[in-house]
């Protein structure tokens, strides 16, 4: 996945001279995860810029650059390091189009490596998506596959609106039989995809939890459950129709994500599914999420992250008897 | 256990200093003067440009009238709120005057007058404060960023824009305005640091008007002056009398010239005074005395210039009358513009959130439309 992301930026920069990559360590080092590797060498330091270490400054100057017609791609290094930039993000990035009645859109892509499962110490593993999806004006996407990493990042950079691009850290090293020479068409931002068809229940998920859900779906076969897995890919806009269509067919749904459950994206999704699928549901919509705790230390994260067992337990609870 | 008794306390003293990774540069050229720079009432006034000064005078009179009219409009309920710049007109006018057409102005919420002096229609400039929309103009058309209500957050925008323009080879300078309170915000410091590191063509103008709402400068900073803050970032700090429009024009022009020539950013502190309350919603008598306000009245920016120019024969009664007539005409047109009820479209709520409306917003827009239709039928 890491290489697909690099390739997406490289191709975008080659095609469009207004695309600029910026952030802490993105130049000479190529980023702490090497996602921007080689970009400074190929396009020069003016187009792939090591900035001073200040997230509000990084995003704030990107706003000014976008005001002048550039397409900045900003790296936030780690989920929890993005918080100093929240005022810029919420008060300016998300609102500039609206404040100016459409006169000044800001085509900024904000790349945020997020989530746990890599044994990182505190402040390196937050699932911060709830903050972003609660902010009108932001588009929020998260790839779960190598192909989507490329396609969604290209689409994000091409978008005339600011996009928070959440990169699941633990999938950086995931591999796939994918060639950047012939990238499969990605149907743009805002489309969910059924990754596995099934008839017994729908698992609704995104980003780092997709592989876990696919594994759970395989394991559930032994229990006689044929699970459908929907990958949202985009949290805002939310592809409600794909989700609703799936749940109406299967009659049961579990939403799975790493972020805490209270006020997390799963709460919203469960509510929407309930509103639109009420008469099709055989059981309440359940959620399997991270606990409502600050992200735990590395040796405890396996107890926090939703795994296959917890998903299977929820699926078992879908045999609802009222 | 006291701190001294903690294990390891005091053990970190180095016996030899670490090697410096780069030579220290001399901070002296970056330091501001001890006293605010002045032109009016000094020998430097001998070289005043009469035509420029007559224009400055007319703009100041117009600016004072604009302040008075906007304040009156708040009393009539036509403006939700107005942060006055009475006493600060020289800063506002000079900031607009020193910019070329292609340059950009980044105003704070208090700087509507600077936007008007740059050529923005006074009614459009007050859209935010009237409440019919957030920004009443196309920023690109006038090269005036939206008035920024969050403090100092527009400063990094100015840096980014100036940096982008320079990357594209365009001759553009950005001038960003902030108050004394805004210099305590993190965005102020990050903006100055980025600007200096990138040598971006930016001019930072701090209007030190004495108070951040009610908090005086002494409780805002421990620095000798706000201009001193430039030194730490590696940019020159200039201290200037903000009520002296000739000094403001000179210092700002010099900084703009320097930025345009590739010399990097400058931090300018204009020492001025907010003669009126923070806004019409504020009671200034709670935090300052009349004596202080009276003392500053004797240093009024319009009187200072008028005295100098009339003494030197640059301005006469006819010139003063002409400036006042021009200001009255502006006020009349502002009144007319503001007395017309703004037309708002409720569907605008959803029109500019995203380039492409989401299903969610389409649904909510349909709901509001149905409510409005039901209201019409009732």
UniProtKB/TrEMBL annotation, chain A:
<feature type="domain" description="Transketolase-like pyrimidine-binding">
    <location>
        <begin position="1"/>
        <end position="174"/>
    </location>
</feature>
<dbReference type="InterPro" id="IPR005475">
    <property type="entry name" value="Transketolase-like_Pyr-bd"/>
</dbReference>
<dbReference type="Pfam" id="PF02780">
    <property type="entry name" value="Transketolase_C"/>
</dbReference>
<keyword id="KW-0560">Oxidoreductase</keyword>
<protein>
    <recommendedName>
        <fullName>3-methyl-2-oxobutanoate dehydrogenase (2-methylpropanoyl-transferring)</fullName>
        <ecNumber>1.2.4.4</ecNumber>
    </recommendedName>
</protein>
<dbReference type="InterPro" id="IPR033248">
    <property type="entry name" value="Transketolase_C"/>
</dbReference>
<dbReference type="Pfam" id="PF02779">
    <property type="entry name" value="Transket_pyr"/>
</dbReference>
<dbReference type="InterPro" id="IPR029061">
    <property type="entry name" value="THDP-binding"/>
</dbReference>
<dbReference type="InterPro" id="IPR009014">
    <property type="entry name" value="Transketo_C/PFOR_II"/>
</dbReference>
Automatic annotation (TrEMBL), chain B:
<dbReference type="Pfam" id="PF00676">
    <property type="entry name" value="E1_dh"/>
</dbReference>
<keyword id="KW-0670">Pyruvate</keyword>
<dbReference type="InterPro" id="IPR029061">
    <property type="entry name" value="THDP-binding"/>
</dbReference>
<dbReference type="InterPro" id="IPR001017">
    <property type="entry name" value="DH_E1"/>
</dbReference>
<protein>
    <submittedName>
        <fullName>Pyruvate dehydrogenase (Acetyl-transferring) E1 component subunit alpha</fullName>
    </submittedName>
</protein>
<keyword id="KW-0786">Thiamine pyrophosphate</keyword>
<feature type="region of interest" description="Disordered">
    <location>
        <begin position="1"/>
        <end position="29"/>
    </location>
</feature>
<feature type="domain" description="Dehydrogenase E1 component">
    <location>
        <begin position="67"/>
        <end position="329"/>
    </location>
</feature>
<dbReference type="InterPro" id="IPR017596">
    <property type="entry name" value="PdhA/BkdA"/>
</dbReference>
<dbReference type="InterPro" id="IPR050771">
    <property type="entry name" value="Alpha-ketoacid_DH_E1_comp"/>
</dbReference>
<keyword id="KW-0560">Oxidoreductase</keyword>
């Amino acid at each position: 996945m890491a290489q697909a992301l690099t390739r997406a930026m490289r191709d975008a920069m080659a095609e469009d001279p207004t695309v600029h990559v910026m952030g802490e360590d993105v130049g000479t080092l190529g980023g702490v995860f090497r996602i921007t590797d080689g970009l400074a060498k190929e396009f020069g330091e003016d187009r792939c810029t090591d900035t001073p270490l200040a997230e509000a400054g990084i995003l704030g100057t990107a706003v000014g650059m976008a005001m002048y017609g550039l397409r900045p791609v900003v790296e936030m290094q780690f989920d929890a390091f993005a918080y100093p930039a929240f005022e810029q993000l919420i008060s300016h990035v998300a609102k500039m189009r609206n404040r100016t009645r459409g006169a000044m859109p800001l085509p900024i892509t904000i790349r945020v490596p997020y989530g746990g499962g890599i044994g990182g110490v505190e402040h390196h593993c937050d699932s911060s998506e709830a903050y972003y999806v609660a902010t009108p004006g932001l588009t929020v996407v998260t790839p779960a596959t190598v192909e989507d990493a490329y396609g969604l990042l290209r689409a994000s950079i091409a978008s005339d609106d600011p996009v928070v691009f959440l990169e699941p850290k633990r999938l950086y090293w995931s591999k796939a039989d994918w060639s950047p020479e012939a990238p499969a068409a990605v149907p743009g931002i805002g489309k969910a995809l059924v990754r596995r068809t099934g008839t017994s229940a729908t698992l609704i998920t995104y980003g780092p939890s997709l592989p876990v859900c696919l594994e759970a779906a395989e394991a559930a076969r032994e229990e006689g459950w044929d699970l459908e897995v929907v990958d949202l890919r985009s949290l805002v806009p939310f592809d409600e129709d794909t989700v609703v269509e799936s749940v109406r067919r299967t009659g049961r749904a579990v939403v799975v994500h790493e972020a805490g459950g209270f006020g997390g994206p799963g709460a919203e999704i469960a509510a929407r599914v309930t509103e639109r699928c009420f008469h099709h549901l055989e059981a309440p919509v359940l959620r399997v999420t991270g606990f409502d705790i600050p992200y735990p230390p590395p040796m405890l994260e396996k107890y926090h992250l939703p795994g296959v067992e917890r998903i299977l337990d929820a699926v078992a609870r879908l045999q609802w008897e009222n | 256990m006291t701190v001294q008794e903690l294990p390891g306390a005091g053990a970190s003293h180095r016996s030899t200093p670490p090697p410096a990774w780069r030579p220290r540069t001399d901070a002296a050229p970056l330091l501001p003067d001890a006293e605010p720079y002045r032109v009016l009432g000094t020998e430097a006034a001998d070289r005043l440009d009469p035509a420029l000064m007559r224009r400055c005078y007319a703009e100041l009179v117009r600016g004072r009238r604009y302040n008075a009219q906007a304040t009156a409009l708040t009393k009539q309920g036509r403006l939700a709120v107005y942060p006055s710049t009475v006493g600060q007109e020289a800063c506002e006018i000079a900031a607009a005057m020193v910019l070329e057409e292609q340059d950009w102005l980044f105003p704070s919420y208090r700087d509507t007058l600077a936007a008007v002096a740059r050529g923005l229609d006074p009614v459009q400039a007050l859209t935010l404060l009237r409440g019919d929309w957030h920004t009443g103009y196309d920023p690109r058309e006038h090269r005036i960023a939206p008035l920024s209500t969050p403090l100092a957050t527009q400063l990094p925008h100015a840096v980014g824009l100036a940096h982008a323009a320079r990357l594209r080879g365009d001759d553009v300078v950005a001038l960003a305005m902030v108050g004394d309170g805004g210099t305590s915000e993190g965005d102020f410091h990050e903006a100055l640091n980025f600007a200096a590191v990138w040598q971006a063509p930016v001019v930072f103008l701090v209007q030190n008007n004495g108070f951040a709402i009610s908090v005086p400068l002494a409780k805002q900073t421990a620095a000798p002056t706000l201009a001193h803050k430039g030194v730490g970032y590696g940019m020159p700090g200039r201290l200037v009398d903000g009520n002296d429009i000739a000094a403001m024009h000179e210092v700002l022009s010099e900084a703009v010239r320097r930025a345009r020539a590739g010399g990097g950013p400058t931090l300018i502190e204009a020492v001025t005074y907010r003669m009126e309350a923070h806004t019409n919603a504020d009671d200034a008598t709670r935090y300052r005395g009349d004596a202080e306000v009276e003392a500053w009245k004797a240093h009024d920016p319009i009187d200072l210039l008028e005295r100098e120019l009339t003494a030197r024969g640059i301005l006469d009664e006819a010139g003063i009358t002409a400036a006042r007539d021009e200001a009255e005409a502006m006020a009349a047109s502002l009144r007319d513009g503001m007395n017309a009820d703004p037309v708002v479209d409720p569907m605008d709520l959803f029109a500019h959130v995203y380039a492409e409306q989401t299903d969610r917003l389409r649904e909510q827009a349909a709901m509001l439309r149905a409510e409005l239709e039901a209201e019409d039928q009732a």
